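so my prof wants the structure for this chain in the tokens format not the other one, which i didnt know existed until like an hour ago. anyway here's the sequence
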Amino acid sequence: MNRKFRLIFIFLFSTALLHAQKATINEAFNKIDNGNLFLVFEKLNQLKIKGTGRINIVHIGDSHIYANVFSAVIRDSLHQYFGNAGAALQLPQELTPASTTNDPGICYYSIAQNGARFLNFIENDDFWKKLPALKADLYIVSLGTNESQYDNFTETVFRKQMIDFLNRLQQTAPEASLIITTPAASFKGGHTNKIIQKASDAIFRYCTEKNMAIWDLYRICNGLSGAGAWYKAGYLTADGVHFSTTGYQVQGKLFYKAFMQSYFSYIR
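here's what i got, hopefully its the right format
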């Protein structure tokens, strides 16, 4: 990609996110750390150069993904740049390969369910039977919020369930790249949810240990101290857990910016 486009990209996304600064976004953390994404980046680069082929991205999550705003911003932005080869929003138990176009590009699956936790996916046999058919080139995993709503949360149990899920996920497509996202800070019982910090820290530590790519939304939003600012800005809804349309859109733009900056660094 030429330097002119990179400058335009940075300008557009920086401008689009200026209004979100009142929500205390920490741009220094808006990056994808760890992990080696060269396999999917090379496939994307070849797609862009040759104008042929299809890349399958599978985004797995809970109600924040099922709302189809956060992931839709990522999907539509990727489609605009790399091409639209199809998309689908599905429940875990209803997986089917998406209806694809004949055009080259990205096929983007969002697989999510309200209230979903790592354990729900682990115990869903239909999900694991059907998942390999999607032939993922990249998995994005956005879970951890719902586990953090339970008072009996323990990092030991959470970590074990996360590891079980990720290990099984990688077995479905050993060559697929993987990005884990941490949950953003939110509220529980009218107070900032301190359990979210424990869950996010557990994800961060594991990804660092295993050199797995991580997009740390918790730290991007300035953790517990940022939750109030997001709420005051109208980016969190009245329940203090789910985000407004604008809040999800800001998150989607942040992820896309971080992803593309990593991609441009690879192809330089």
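also thought this was worth mentioning. The chain has eleven helices and nine strands.
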